[in-house]
Each structure stands twice: as structure tokens, then as C-alpha cells.
Design brief:
Blueprint (H helix, E strand, L loop, with lengths): L1 H9 L7 H5 L3 E2 L8 E2 L4 E12 L4 E12 L12 H4 L2 E4 L2 E4 L13
Length: 110
């Protein structure tokens, strides 16, 4: 999945069909015309609200309209189990995976 994620970030949809290049399967979205990606355990549908020009790039502000989460990554309380989801983080030009929970909100004040 990491090579597909990187490809989607460095190639423009004007130049290639990203679904074809990454062998992604299109799923109909519930609130937007853009397709969701079957291979991704979480899909977030957004509406564009604003574009903020930052000089070297633009920041896109969106409103979340719908979220689809695969049941296979949920815990018994229907929260995302991040060890099952195995999220990827992009930080300063590098991709990282997550390994363990470090704390929870308010733990420092207990």
C-alpha cells in the first residue's frame, strides 16, 4: 500500500489514472461524486470549503460529510483499533507506521 500512497502523492490525476496505476477498486461514495477506495480501511468524504494560499502550496479546507470504516478494524466498542488499522503517517518526507499507544487524553493530570 505504501508505494500506492506515495504514487498518489507525487503524480497528478491530470497525467495518470491513479486507480488504474495503483490497482485500486472504486466504490461509490454516499455523499460525494468522488469514488472511495475499497482497499483503504477508512474513507472520508469531504466537501471543499476553502483554499488558503500559503506561498509554496495551497491548503485545502474541507467539511467531512461521511466516513466509511471497515468492520474488520473496529474493536468491540466500535472504535478504530489502530493496531488492526496499521495507519501510515507522513512526516517530513518520510512514511512511518505506528506501534504502541503512548497515553490517553488527560493521563498527565491524573
Amino acid at each position: 500500500m505504501i508505494k500506492s500512497i506515495d504514487l498518489c502523492g507525487v503524480k497528478s490525476g491530470r497525467d495518470i489514472d491513479k486507480f488504474e496505476a495503483c490497482s485500486f477498486t472504486k466504490l461509490a461514495s454516499s455523499k460525494t461524486a468522488s469514488p472511495s477506495i475499497q482497499e483503504c480501511p477508512v474513507n472520508i468524504e469531504c466537501a471543499l470549503k476553502d483554499i488558503v494560499k500559503l506561498g509554496t502550496h495551497d491548503m485545502f479546507i474541507g467539511e467531512v460529510l461521511a466516513i466509511r470504516v471497515d468492520n474488520g478494524i473496529l474493536d468491540p466498542k466500535n472504535n478504530i483499533d489502530y493496531l488492526k488499522a496499521d495507519p501510515i503517517v507522513f512526516n517530513q518526507g518520510e512514511y512511518w507506521s505506528l506501534g504502541k499507544r503512548l497515553g490517553s487524553y488527560g493521563f498527565s493530570a491524573k
